[in-house]
Design goal:
The chain has 148 residues and is an alpha+beta fold. The protein has 4 helices and 5 strands. The chain is 32% helix and 28% strand. The N and C termini lie far apart (47 Å).
């Protein structure tokens, strides 16, 4: 049905197609028209020595999902920090995302990682997706930002 594969910077163009195809649409509407900025962002996430990127493929070997993140060594154990996770919009709602999360959990366990950490917005469908898949909302962490 589905398979996951660890991806690398060599898969950058395929990753960018899936990423832009999802995050430029509802509910995010991110403007990734600056191709240089997009390339730099994907390289930041996929091209580092500590990067950990997975792809979800369907039976036709089409990339339908990506998880872009990195390995973080922390006092409570090594974690997988997910910066971006998505399933192609037209493939959502059919169980691919749940399969992907479960496969990622198994893959990182095999690497000796102890936890997944990610941020999402509370007003997007991803919020309910993560809660449905066993993620709990941290009561102590707060995200801050400041324009300079």
């Amino acid at each position: 049905m589905y398979t996951i594969k660890r991806l690398s910077i060599d898969d950058k163009e395929e990753i960018k197609r899936v990423f832009v195809g999802v995050f430029t649409r509802e509910p995010w509407y991110d403007d990734w028209s600056d191709k240089e900025q997009l390339d730099l962002y994907i390289c930041d996430l996929v091209g580092q020595s500590y990067s950990l990127t997975y792809g979800l493929y369907d039976d036709a070997e089409e990339l339908i999902g990506i998880s872009l993140g990195y390995i973080k060594h922390w006092y409570s154990g090594t974690e997988y920090i997910i910066n971006e996770l998505c399933i192609k919009t037209e493939r959502q709602g059919a169980g691919a995302g749940t399969f992907f999360i479960q496969a990622i959990e198994e893959a990182i366990r095999e690497l000796g990682l102890k936890q997944i950490f990610l941020l999402t917005e509370s007003n997007v469908p991803a919020y309910d997706f993560y809660r449905k898949n066993g993620f709990t909302q941290s009561e102590n962490n707060v995200a801050f930002s400041k324009q300079v």
